[in-house]
Amino acid sequence: MKQAVAVFAAAVALMYSLTFCFAAGLTPEQQAKVDARVKPIQEWGADAKIVEAVKAYNASPSAEAAAMTNEKWKGLTILDPFVSSLAKNDLATYLKTKKDDSITEAFVSGADGGKVAFLAKTTSWNHKGKEKHDLPMTGKTWQGAVEVDESTGKQQVQVAVPVLDGATPIGSIVVGLGVSKL
C-alpha cells in the first residue's frame, strides 16, 4: 500500500511539473535547460562586481535615476545619454563578459527597482511591484512564461535572481534566455 501511495505521489508530482512547463510554454527538455542555467545566474547575484555596483546605486542613485519614471523611460531613445550610460557603464561592460548565445537580455536593478546596468535598453525603467523584481527581493528565484520580449523582439523566458549582500537581497538580476537556444 505504501508503495502504491508513493507511486501515486510521484505521478502527481510529475504531472504538476509537466503542467507548469507546458503552461509556461516550455517542453520538459527546455525547462531542464532553463533549470541548469539558473545556478550560474544565481552566482551572478553574489559576484563582487555586481554587488558593489548595486550597493553604490542603492546608497546614492543619481538625480536622473531618482526622478525617472516608466512613462519618461518609454520616451527615451537608446541614444539618450542617460540610457547610453547604463548600457556602457562598468557593470554593463562586465555583464557583456557573462553573455552567451542563449542570453537575449540581462539587466540589474537596485532595491528600488531602478536600473543599475543592462545589455540593452529595457522596456520599463522600474520593475518594482512586479514579481520579476519583488520575488528576488525576498531572496527567491523567479521564472516567467515564454513571451516575445518588447525590447528584444525575441521569444524568451526570463529568470530573475536576487543580488545578495551576504544573505540580504539588495537588488535583482533579470536574464532573458532565448527559447530557440534552449
Description of the molecule:
It is a single chain. With 182 residues, the chain is an alpha+beta fold. The chain is built from 8 helices and 6 strands; from the N terminus they run H-H-H-H-H-H-H-E-E-H-E-E-E-E. It has a single domain (27-181), classed as Beta-Lactamase, CATH 3.30.450.20. It has helices at 2-23, 28-44, 48-59, 63-67, 70-74, 81-88, 90-98, 131-134; strands at residues 103-110, 115-118, 142-143, 147-148, 155-165, 168-178. Strands 1, 2, 3, 4, 5 and 6 form a 6-stranded antiparallel sheet that branches. The radius of gyration is 18 Å and the shape is globular. The termini are far apart.
List keywords for this structure.
single chain; 182 residues; alpha+beta; Beta-Lactamase; six-stranded antiparallel β-sheet; 8 helices; globular
Rounded average pLDDT:
88
- Poorly predicted regions are 4-23
| Tally of separate domains | 1
Name the CATH superfamily classification.
PAS domain
Major sheet size, sense and barrel closure: 6 strands, antiparallel
Structural class: alpha+beta
* CATH class membership: Alpha Beta
Distance between the termini: 40 Å
- Spatial shape: globular
Our count of helices gives 8
Order of H and E elements? HHHHHHHEEHEEEE
- Helicity range of the residues? 40-55%
The CATH topology turns out to be: Beta-Lactamase
Q: Mind telling me the C-alpha Rg?
A: 18 Å
